[in-house]
Amino acid sequence: MIRKHTLGGMGAGFAAGVLALAVSAQAFAGTVTTDGADIVVKTKGGLEVATTDKAFGFKLGGRLQADYGRFDGFYTANGNTADAAYFRRAFLELGGVAFTDWAYQINYDFSHNAGSADDGYFDEASIAYTGFNPITLKFGRFDPDFGLEKATSSKWVTALERNAVYDIIDWTNGHENGMGAQAMALISNYAYVSAGVFSKDINDVDGDSVKQFNARGVFAPMAEAGNVLHFGASFAQRGLDDVVGADARYRSRLGMRGVQTLGGNDAGANGNRAVFGGSNAANQFWDNDTAWGLEAAWATGPFSLQGEWIKRETESAGPQSDVEGDGFYVQAAYTLTGEARDYKMGKFDKIKPANKQLGAWEVYYRYDTFSVDNEVAAVNTTFIRQADDTEAKVHNLGVNWYANEAVKVGAMYTKAKTDKITNRAGDDDGDGFVMRMQYVF
Question: Is the residue at 119 inside a domain?
Answer without folding.
Answer: yes
